[in-house]
């Protein structure tokens, strides 16, 4: 299978980049399944139902969220009616929606997508991500019920993301980090066949401070005081993520490459 994961969509410019590039990439790269992290797509904080519908219409098969899952209040109801939107498995008990789901893919194949939140350096203590993802992976073994498995690790600490990557190795096709908005240079295939990248980066304007207009973040660092609200930067966005090609028999990755299309970080892309 040919899979694409796109990192955190940041505001209007990130949504525009997905709409502009994803339909072409689906055709040119013959993609079988696309996952997009959309938790910052609406004003940089959360995701509205309308913006989720736009990302799905652009070609995403599944949207993942994160610690800002319900910053936009209409998502509380929307996530219950739209099964293609997933919130983290280990979010607050009783949270609406689901954290893992099996999706249909071309050729009768099945793709399991799951998301967990890290615990280290996060705003509030979430439930243990290791046990949460372990249960999800046991429910749909790779190469058995699932032709491919994609795990989104929404976390701050690189060490925690790496530990979860190795925890899932042999049971996932791709383990990829989100949340920090900066694409890492450690794209690899782990020992037991899972493609891995510590952070996919964001789909947003990189002439910014992790997607936000530069002036207010810099002012807060310099003065220690807030003057204005954070607002997403609105220059040309770079589409960032990870491309994976898997072995159909085992679900293990046989090729992986970082993706950077358009904007300031554009580079060579998978063929």
Outline the fold blueprint.
Elements: E1 2-6, E2 8-9, H1 11-28, E3 33-37, H2 49-57, E4 62-64, H3 75-81, E5 85-86, E6 100-105, E7 109-117, H4 129-139, E8 148-154, H5 158-168, E9 174-178, E10 188-189, E11 195-197, E12 202-203, H6 215-223, E13 239-246, E14 253-261
Parallel strand pairs: 1-3, 2-12, 3-4, 4-5, 7-8, 8-9, 9-11
Antiparallel strand pairs: 1-13, 6-7, 10-11, 13-14
Short characterization:
This protein is α/β, with parallel strands linked by helices and 271 residues long. It has helices at residues 11-28, 49-57, 75-81, 129-139, 158-168, 215-223; strands at 2-6, 8-9, 33-37, 62-64, 85-86, 100-105, 109-117, 148-154, 174-178, 188-189, 195-197, 202-203, 239-246, 253-261.
Question: What does this protein structure show overall?
Answer:
The protein is 24% helix and 25% strand. With 271 residues, it is α/β, with parallel strands linked by helices. It has one domain: Metallo-dependent phosphatases (Purple Acid Phosphatase, chain A, domain 2). The strands form 3 sheets. A 6-stranded mixed beta sheet has the order 5-4-3-1-13-14. The chain has a 6-stranded mixed beta sheet with strand order 6-7-8-9-11-10, covered by helices on one side. α3 links the parallel β4 and β5. It is globular. The two termini are 14 Å apart. The mean pLDDT is 95.
């Amino acid at each position: 299978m040919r899979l694409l994961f796109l990192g955190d969509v940041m505001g209007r410019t990130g949504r525009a980049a997905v709409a502009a590039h994803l339909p072409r990439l689906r055709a040119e790269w013959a993609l079988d399944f696309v996952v997009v992290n959309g938790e910052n797509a609406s004003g940089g904080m959360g995701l509205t139902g309308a913006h989720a519908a736009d990302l799905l219409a652009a070609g995403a098969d599944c949207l993942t969220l994160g610690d800002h899952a319900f910053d936009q209040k209409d998502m509380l109801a929307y996530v219950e009616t739209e099964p293609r939107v997933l919130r983290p498995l280990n979010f607050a008990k009783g949270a609406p929606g689901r954290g893992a789901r099996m999706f249909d893919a071309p050729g009768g194949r099945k793709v399991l997508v799951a998301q967990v939140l890290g615990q280290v350096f996060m705003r509030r203590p979430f439930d243990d991500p290791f046990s949460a993802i372990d249960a999800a992976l046991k429910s749909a073994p790779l190469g058995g019920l699932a032709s491919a498995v994609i795990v989104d690790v929404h976390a701050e600490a690189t060490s925690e993301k790496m530990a979860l990557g190795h925890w899932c190795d042999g049971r996932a096709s791709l383990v990829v980090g989100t949340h920090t908005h900066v694409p890492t240079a450690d794209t690899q295939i782990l020992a037991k066949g899972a493609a891995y990248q510590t952070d996919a980066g964001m789909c947003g304007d990189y002439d910014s401070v992790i997607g936000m207009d530069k002036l207010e973040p810099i002012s807060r660092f310099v003065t220690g005081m807030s003057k204005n609200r954070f607002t997403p930067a609105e220059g040309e966005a770079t589409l960032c993520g990870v491309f994976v090609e898997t072995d159909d028999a085992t679900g293990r990755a046989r090729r992986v490459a970082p993706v950077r299309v358009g904007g300031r970080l554009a580079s060579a892309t998978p063929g």
